[in-house]
Amino acid sequence: LQHKVEHQQALNVVGQMACSIAHEIRNPLTSLKGFTELLKLNADEESSMYLSVIDSELQRMEQILSELLVLSKPTSMKVELLELDNIVKQVIEFMLPDALMKNIMIQYISASTQVYIGGNENRLKQVFMNLIKNAMESMKSGGTITVEINVIDCASVELMIKDEGVGMDSATLQNLFQPFYTTKSTGTGLGLAFVKKVIEEHEGVIGVNSELQKGTCFHLQFPIYTFNQMDTMDVSAKDSAYLV
Ligand code: ADP
Ligand code: MG
């Protein structure tokens, strides 16, 4: 027991450190972004090219920081009524150009009815993005990613993200949700830890099936929100929502 308590305390210290470092790095990062924007105004063609690389690398740093922050402490989030279909579509549209460049098709099968869930739009988008990004990274020679929404019953909805990639061995399957666990040379291992934490914050569950050389399928399940629950939430979109 003593050993366990010490382990927990060590984790908390690491968490607090990660959290304050992330905060400290955020401010200089914001000023770098601002000055990059200013430089763009007078940049010639060659400089513009370099600046867009700087831009996307800064964005990547920002994303790692925000994942670290969410993972390292309990955070509050703004919860709204969200139409799942709409959020998923926006994420797919955002990722499509990158996918097409890698010879990857994203097939989307939407739900038969509109479904609303309660959640934080930005965090959920980041979750879907992380899962689709992993799927893309598992398919080095292209293929199809299938994203499908299924209404299970009046209380829950399922989202599936299926790829035709390399699949996972049993060691990876056991550790994939651990922070910093990665099998990639340039991975952070934060993506799925973030996914799991955010899904649990949304009272959802996540499961995975995977077969080596065949592919992987992540299943997410969320509670469907109805009128009664909406009344207790701070939402302005009540008019456009309806009972499933
Ligand atoms: P990262 O992508 O930075 O490695 P993640 O937390 O997103 O970190 O994923 C952890 C590990 O889980 C990956 O390194 C990879 O081994 C495995 N993994 C996740 N998604 C998939 C997938 N769709 N197909 C195969 N392996 C996957
Ligand atoms: Mg990842």
From TrEMBL:
So which residues are the signal peptide here?
Answer: none
Q: List its EC numbers.
A: 2.7.13.3
In terms of domain of life, where is this protein from? Answer: Bacteria
- Note the coiled coil stretches, chain numbering: none
The catalytic activity, as recorded, is: ATP + protein L-histidine = ADP + protein N-phospho-L-histidine
The answer, when asked if Protein biosynthesis is one of the entry's keywords, is: no
Say if the entry is tagged with keyword Cytoplasm. Answer: no
**GO MF annotation, one:** kinase activity
Write the record's keywords in alphabetical order, separated by commas.
Answer: ATP-binding, Kinase, Nucleotide-binding, Phosphoprotein, Transferase, Two-component regulatory system
Q: Where is the Histidine kinase domain?
A: 20-226
Protein name (database record): histidine kinase
Q: Which residues of the full protein are shown?
A: 228 to 471 of 472
